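## Example pair
The file below holds two records. Each record gives the amino-acid sequence first, followed by its C-alpha cell line.
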Amino acid sequence: MKPRHKRIAIAAGILTVVGAAATLVLSAFQSNLVFFYSPSQIASNEAPVNRTFRLGGLVAAGSVQREGVRVRFVVTDTAKTVPVQFEGILPDLFKEGKGVVAQGKLQGGVFVAKEVLAKHDENYMPPEAAQALKNAAQSNEKTAASLVNGK
C-alpha cells in the first residue's frame, strides 16, 4: 500500500471513530433529557406518554394524604390540577401551598413520581414553574373578566 493510501485509510478510520462517538454521545444526551411541564400543559395532552418528565407547581391545600411512606397529593398551577403519587421520604420543606417539582411518569391520569423536590427558600421557584403560574393566573383573569362582561 502506498503512503498516500495509508494516510487516506487512517483519516477515514479517524472520521469513522469520531462520527460513532458523536452519535453515541448525542443518543445518550437525548435519552437523558428531562422536560418540565405544568398541570395545564398536562391537561392539554402536551406531556409525553411513557417517558420521564418533570411536573411543577404548587401543592394544593388539603391534598396531602400519607399512608406510611406512600404519599398522595395534588399539584396545581391555579388553573389545572394533577394528582401525584410518591413512595419514599419527602423533603423537609415539602408543605401544602408551597412550590414543588416532581420527576416521574404519567400513568393512567396519575403522575407517579420517582423524585420530589421542594423549594429551598422563600424566593426560589424554578423559572418554568413561575411562568406556568403566571400564565395560569392570566388565563383565570381573562375567564373572570369574560364572565363579568357577559361574553
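Second record, same layout:
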Amino acid sequence: MKHYAGDRTPDGCEVMVLDMNHEGGGYILDPRNDLRNHSPDGFNWGYSGSGASQLSLAILADVLEDDSLANKLHIDFKNKVIARLDADRWTISEEDVRLAVADLAAARKR
C-alpha cells in the first residue's frame, strides 16, 4: 500500500510516495500539471488555494489511476482532506484517500 508524505521546507513543499512495490521504495509525486495547472509554484496544503488544489489532483490521479475521475473529484477532496492538513509534515495512506473518495461519492449521490 502506498503512503504519501508531505514536508514543508524552506525551499518549498515536497511530497513523496512511499511504495514498497516501486523500485527504490518510492518516488516524488508528479504534480500532474498536464491535467490542470493550478499552481506553477508547486504543492501546498492547510488552506484552500492553488497549491492545495494541485496536490489534491496529483494524489487522486496517483491513487485512482483515472485522470478524469481525479479531475472531477479533486476540489471536493482538497476541501475534505488537503486543506485540513495543518502541519509542516504529514502522511496519508492510499487507503485513507480511497475512503475519502468513497465518502465524497456517497455525498454526491445524496
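Notes on the second record: The first strand starts at residue 3 and ends at 9. The chain has one domain: 3-109.
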